Amino acid sequence: MGWNDGWTDKKRAIIGDDAEFYLAQLFKMYVNPNGSRRPDLISPANSYKPRFTLEVKSGKCAKGVMVDYQLHYALTSRDDYNDLPDTPQRVFEGMGIADFHAPKEIAYYHAVVSRDKSVKSEDIKMPFATMKIDWQDVYIAPNEFGFYSFVRAKTQRTGLSAAYIIEELTELMLRDARGVSVGLEARKMDPQSWQNLFGEDIKALVTGNLDDTTKHGRIRIDALRRIYPGVDDLKGMQLQGPQNTTLYILFDKDHYALFNTQLRKTIGERLPFMEEVALERIIAREWLRKVKPKIITREDMFGGKPEQVAKVYKGMTKVQWKTAQRLAQWRHADDTFEPIPMPFSDNGAKGNLDEVPY
C-alpha cells in the first residue's frame, strides 16, 4: 500500500500534533479547529464545567516552549474577538494587570508533555513515524502561571525589569487579541518571543518538594514568587496516566471540582483505551521499518530534467495503513470519540469549522 499525505519536513510541528492527540484522547477533548486564535484543545460542550481549554507544549526533559503570540489566547469575548470591549478589564483578576477579561466559565491552562529522549527529530522521517514516541509525564498549570513564567524568563534573558515586561506583554496581548499586530510567523524571527516552560518546576510546586526540580529550577521558582505571589495560592494534584506515567496538575482553587472530580473520572474511563492504543503503536513500529519512499516524477515536455511531483511511501498493507491512520490520532478501534470534530455548533447544527463553541 502506498500513500502521499502531504508529508513535510516540519518535524517539530508533527511531534507536537501527536502530543495534542494524546491529550485529546486522554481528556476527551477536541483538537481546536481554530488553533491560530485559540488554545490547542477545547472540551466538548457540557463535558466539563467550566469549559476546559489547553495550550499543549511538548519536548524532551519536561520542557516546552511558549511564544508570546499565544499569551493572548485567554483574552476572549463570546464573539471570538469580534466584539472586544473598548474599556479594558482585568485579565487575571486580582493581579493588577489591566487588559481584557478571561471569562470565569472557561478554564485556560498550559500543558507540557515530556517525551522519550531516545527519539530524535531526525527519526521522524515519514508519515506515522510519531508512533515511535513514548509520551511520559504531563505537567499542567493555569494560564496565569504561563504568563508570569514568560515574564520571569524574559526578565532573566534581557535584564529588563519585570514591571516593564508585564506592561509590554499586556499591550502586545491587547494588540494580538484585536488582530492589529504581527502574527505568529513574524514572531519567529525574534528570539525573545520564545521562552521555556519547565515541567519540573510545576512538579516541584505540586509536590511541595523543591528537590523535584533542578538547582536552576529552584532559582526560577524563587524569581517567579517575587513577581507572582499568587503562585503559592495554587493547589496541586497528581493523577495516574497511561503506562505508569503521572499527571502533575497545578490549578486555581476555583477549579478543584474540574480536576479532582471531572477530569479524574474522565481519565479513569479513558485509561484502558489509552493503554491498548499504546501497545498497538509499539507493534506498529515494526511496520514502519518496511516503509520506503518512492519518488514520482513527470517527464519534461521539452526534454529537460524530469520533475518530481510526489513522494509516495510504500511497504504497508491497506489494513496496516488504515490502522496507522487511527493510531496516529491515538484512537482505539472500539472508541467512538473523534478528537477532530466535524463542523458543528453547540446546538448540534452543522456550522463553520472556525466556530469553536463556548
Describe the structure.
By secondary structure, the protein is of the alpha+beta class. The chain has one domain. It is 33% helix and 22% strand. It has eight helices and 14 strands. The chain has helices at 11-27, 143-158, 162-178, 184-187, 199-207, 215-227, 256-288, 318-327, and strands at 2-3, 30-31, 41-42, 51-60, 63-67, 89-92, 97-99, 106-115, 135-142, 194-198, 235-240, 246-251, 292-298, 307-314. The strands form four sheets. The protein has a seven-stranded mixed sheet, sandwiched between helices. A three-stranded antiparallel sheet has the order 1-14-13, with no helix packed on it. A two-stranded antiparallel ribbon has the order 5-10. The longest helix is centred in the C-terminal third of the chain and has 33 residues, at 256-288. The chain is globular. The model is unreliable at 1-9, 77-101 and 342-358 (pLDDT under 50).
